Amino acid sequence: MSNIGKQYQENVWGLRHVDLQVQPGILGLLGPNGAGKSTLMRLLATISEPSEGTITWNGVGIRENPEEIRRILGYLPQDFGVYPHLSAHEFLNYMAAVKGISGKAAEKRIDELLGLLHLYDVRKRRIGSFSGGMKQRIGIAQALLNDPKLLIIDEPTIGLDPAERLSFRNLLTDLSGERLIIFSTHIVSDIEATADRIAILSKGRLISDSNPGELLRHVQGKVWNVVIPESQLQEARAKWLISATVRREDGLLLRVVSETPPNEQATAVHAGIEDAYLYLSAG
Ligand SMILES: Nc1ncnc2c1ncn2[C@@H]1O[C@H](COP(=O)(O)OP(=O)(O)OP(=O)(O)O)[C@@H](O)[C@H]1O
């Protein structure tokens, strides 16, 4: 996509001047609420059209030829509604029909996906009785019905408990291979564990697009541990960029991102993606 902009109202741009080239792998879209992640995903999924710029897939403009991308697309929106009264199997059968997959091919694919997403044993249960993680897996299963080359998942880890979050990360890795998976989150650890490329959005702008190693290079040698008395936290927040705080017996252990040691007792520590995200977002 090149020079993409999406204007919602006179002075409201969901995205502005975004250039992004994609290739197979896992692309994590990272940004706070309102950064433009869903907007970008909806544009790619051809749910909405850009106000500026062009998006091409294999050299073909998707505005003129939306079918070019829809054929190979699997999309799980953030507010995906499942049908609580249908069983997992009935729901996938219905979604397959909507997508024009029927007969033996549909049956085979549905069984494969129920297995892949660990839903086979509960395939006859009503979706309304599923946990958050199971609902999310059924959402991913429907997105995979057409074996998409491009899989877009909007904020997939919202509402998941820690164990479900972990299995989601494993699932993403299992699903990648030849396809491109784009998923969004505002939680750095979700991205850190899975993405081979990280795009950071802030206020509708793409502020970074690189692999994790390159991202870390921005903050290498700039991350420090500092212990302060708890009473000085407010003051510390005002002068330092703090990426983590841990309460200890001898005070508060702060993780600070700074070009130079924040004080004489500071010790250098290895940089993480969270530090880089904070550093780049602070601009
Ligand atoms: N339909 C809309 N009408 C008006 N403004 C919108 C609309 N959709 C999004 N916006 C605005 O565009 C900006 C980007 O929103 P978007 O939903 O893409 O962000 P996001 O990063 O996905 O955040 P979230 O995680 O909260 O969904 C926000 O300021 C939002 O208020």
From TrEMBL:
Belongs to the ABC transporter superfamily. One of its GO terms (molecular function) is ATP hydrolysis activity. The keyword Isomerase does not apply. This is ABC transporter ATP-binding protein. PROSITE patterns: ABC_TRANSPORTER_1, ABC_TRANSPORTER_2. It holds the Pfam family ABC_tran. Signal peptide: none annotated. Keywords: ATP-binding, Nucleotide-binding, Transport. Residues 1-228 form the ABC transporter domain. It comes from Paenibacillus chitinolyticus. InterPro entries: AAA+_ATPase (IPR003593), ABC_transporter-like_ATP-bd (IPR003439), ABC_transporter-like_CS (IPR017871), P-loop_NTPase (IPR027417).
